[in-house]
Design brief:
CATH superfamily of the largest domain: P-loop containing nucleotide triphosphate hydrolases
CATH class of the largest domain: Alpha Beta
Strand order of the largest sheet: 2-3-4-1-5
Radius of gyration: 20 Å
Order of helices and strands: HEHEHEHEHEHHHHHHHHH
Number of strands: 5
Distance between the termini: 41 Å
Shape: globular
Number of domains: 2
Number of helices: 14
Largest sheet: 5 strands, parallel
Structural class: alpha/beta
Strand content: 5-15%
CATH topology of the largest domain: Rossmann fold
CATH architecture of the largest domain: 3-Layer(aba) Sandwich
Length: about 290
């Protein structure tokens, strides 16, 4: 995993994990941090595979949510059925069957409770990797059964160096500012590939370029797409955090309003507040 862009502390924790892999690990980082790629590469390292071989490995399971929707108990039942199957040649290596559950914070309470026994006593050779945007969204009983590794945001100099071989430095810095320095989202932006946050990133840039009355015209449309609204508020916060590192005067004041507005909107939307009210307040905050 040497070619992955990682914070030094995160890299040390991953290297320590690989010396003696736990049966379950929880990778925690904001959306856009590249947790999926990290989970796959970590699986390859545990299995002794070369980079890129995970896709063709037959004894794996990758669980992904559907556009931010809750992950129900039936998905956990599917994991259990998968783990009930025998792996040919089992016993020849300590770990031979990975299960990756992306965005585990979307597991329903019922699904999390159903997962407990599997996390505590997985079948021989099985290791489970959970990814989540927040560990607090998971039950304490889930957290206690998995080794926690926070995926810290890499330093800007490391990010720029990582992408510099194939990209212009100006493009890298622009992508860094827009993405908030999130490696997964930056990779999508610079590589012109798809990412769940790309649409929200475009939306956030559009809002920042508009006067308040034009932003208000977007409220009706955005209020009907809760996940896009949440993602846009999240991206606005990331952009503000990066910009506040160098901004001063009126620019700094504006970015502080953007940061506060994005945070309050996300909090309101997560709390099931009226979407139109939450978004109206966001549009008028900067």
């Amino acid at each position: 995993m040497k070619d992955l862009i990682l914070h030094p502390t995160t890299r040390r924790q991953l290297e320590s994990f690989l010396k003696s892999p736990a049966h379950a690990v929880l990778l925690v980082a904001p959306a856009g941090s590249g947790k999926r790629t990290l989970a796959i590469r970590l699986s390859e390292a545990v299995l002794g595979l070369s980079s890129g071989d995970f896709a063709d490995y037959p004894y794996k399971m990758l669980v992904s949510d559907e556009e931010g929707k809750a992950i129900g108990i039936e998905t956990v039942r599917e994991v259990e059925r998968f783990l009930s199957l025998k792996v040919p040649g089992a016993g020849k290596q300590a770990h031979n069957r990975p299960v990756i559950i992306e965005n585990a914070h979307l597991l329903s309470t019922e699904a999390q409770n159903a997962l407990l026994k599997t996390l505590e006593e997985p079948p021989a050779g099985t290791f489970i990797i959970l990814t989540a945007a927040s560990e607090q969204a998971l039950l304490p009983t889930i957290r206690s059964r998995a080794q926690l590794i926070p995926v810290n945001r890499p330093e800007q100099t490391a990010v720029e160096s990582h992408f510099q071989a194939q990209n212009d430095i100006q493009a890298i810095r622009q992508a860094y500012a827009v993405s908030g320095g999130l490696p997964g989202l930056m990779q999508a932006m610079l590589g012109q590939t798809d990412h769940p946050l790309m649409l929200a990133t475009q939306y956030a840039r559009q809002l920042l370029s508009q006067p308040a009355y034009e932003r208000l015209l977007c409220v009706d449309e955005l209020s009907k797409q809760r996940q896009l609204a949440l993602d846009t508020a999240f991206i606005l916060q990331q952009m503000a955090r990066v910009s506040l590192q160098t901004a001063s005067g009126q620019a700094a004041a504006k970015w502080q309003r953007v940061l506060n507005g994005g945070y309050q909107a996300a909090k309101a939307l997560d709390g099931n507040a009226q979407p139109k009210l939450a978004l109206t307040n966001l549009m008028l905050s900067f």
